[in-house]
Amino acid sequence: MREAWRWFGPNDPVTIQDIRQTGATDIVSALHSIPTGEVWPLEKIRGHQQLIERNNEPGSFLVWTVVESIAVHEDIKLGRENNQQYVDSWIASMENLAKCGIKTICYNFMPVIDWTRTDLEFQLPNGAYALRFDQQKFTAFDLFILKRENAEADYSEEEIEQSKSIFDAMSEDDKALLTKNIIAGLPGKMTDAYTIDNFRDMLSNYKDINKDILRKNLFSFLSQVLPKAEQLGVKLAIHPDDPPRDMLGLPRIICTSADLERLFSALPSSANGITLCVGTFGSRPDNDLPEMAKKYGSRIHFSHLRGVSRDANEQRSFTEAQHLSSDVDMVEIISALLKEETLRNNTENNQEIFIRPDHGHQILDDLNKEANPGYSCLGRLKGLAEIRGVIKALNANLS
Ligand code: DNO
């Protein structure tokens, strides 16, 4: 297991020097300033790598090993005719990364919005802040702020009524904040939209794209990328759709175990893998996470070891939990990943699995600091320390 930490680059309030103190050994990062669809130039990758590795010394060593993410251009997801240039640039970026020795690439295929939350500062009873996805607020956004065409068809009468009362109780500031959280609030540039009109236009591009078409477009993209990745020894790790279901009329295709099954039976290449984002898959009650960790073990190149706790009365709403006390059995999942690593020994695929803490709570001194939502230092440090303890204990038992 390789303990990794996500760093958003020189503007990240958590610095590389800070990360050295967490005990992590690997950095997960990306060149966020390069517009989607453009090639990541070799010298920029080297420069970023240099920022991470320049103060390395024995006992305090960090390497940039995982990319999260090279964004996939919307024209590829839409299967537009001019998309070849964007596929070529994606491959060229992957080649440049491989030249620098960076060979694990996380990406996703979510149309328009990447991960999304309604609340970025949801206060917990102990005073900490967590991220939260509230389905009723999201429905209120869809129906009464975005006013998406035919959106009513996606909801029951009861849902429409409930979300209307939520909307009616919102102040103008609440509405603005909810809108900002959904279309522009999360780190790592989660949508290419900047205004609600622009966002609406991007959604409407998908009106004729259903799951089958989107899947065909993913497979066509991968059938061009995977052979090259295999030659370079690069592992691709698709991140699941978060939350893992269709939303805002958009199809989502990496949500369940059956989705993964389709992906691997269509494209069995050994370079075709996943990011086991426990929190994302675990926000659906029908995903059995320990089972998935076992079943897709050899495909797991990277894992986000966080969890959520779903609302008792609305299983689509969830609050991000502490790393070891979510709805899933994290110890069993870590145990499955460790067993997978022992199976890998003496095989060609003997790469340890990169893991990282994710979406920590904002706690203690971080409550008064500027932070990327979900990516403050102390909450993730606590998560990492807990996970590290589990790994140590399980390893002691295994040997
Ligand atoms: C959120 C992350 C996602 C992830 C992308 C991967 O914290 O897990 O932003 O980086 O979906 O492409």
Q: What portion of residues belong to β-strands?
A: 5-15%
And the CATH topology of the largest domain?
TIM Barrel
Radius of gyration: 20 Å
Oligomer: single chain
CATH class of the largest domain: Alpha Beta
Residue windows where pLDDT falls under 50 for at least 5 positions: none
- Looking at the structure, what is the overall shape? globular
Bound molecules: D-mannose
For the biggest sheet, the summary is:
8 strands, parallel, barrel
Q: Report the CATH superfamily of the largest domain.
A: Divalent-metal-dependent TIM barrel enzymes
The H-and-E topology, N to C, reads as EHEHEHHEEEHHHHHEHEHHEEEHEH
- What do the pLDDT scores average to? 95
Category by helix and strand content: alpha/beta
Number of strands: 12
**Numbering strands along the chain, what is their spatial order in the largest sheet?**
1-2-3-4-7-8-9-12
Mind sketching the topology for me?
Blueprint: E1 2-6, H1 16-22, E2 26-29, H2 42-53, E3 63-68, H3 74-77, H4 84-99, E4 104-107, E5 119-123, E6 129-133, H5 135-146, H6 157-168, H7 172-184, H8 196-204, H9 211-232, E7 235-238, H10 257-266, E8 272-277, H11 278-281, H12 289-295, E9 300-304, E10 308-310, E11 318-320, H13 330-344, E12 354-356, H14 377-398
Parallel strand pairs: 1-2, 1-12, 2-3, 3-4, 4-7, 7-8, 8-9, 9-12
Antiparallel strand pairs: 5-6, 6-11, 10-11
Helix pairs in contact: 4-9, 5-6, 12-13, 13-14
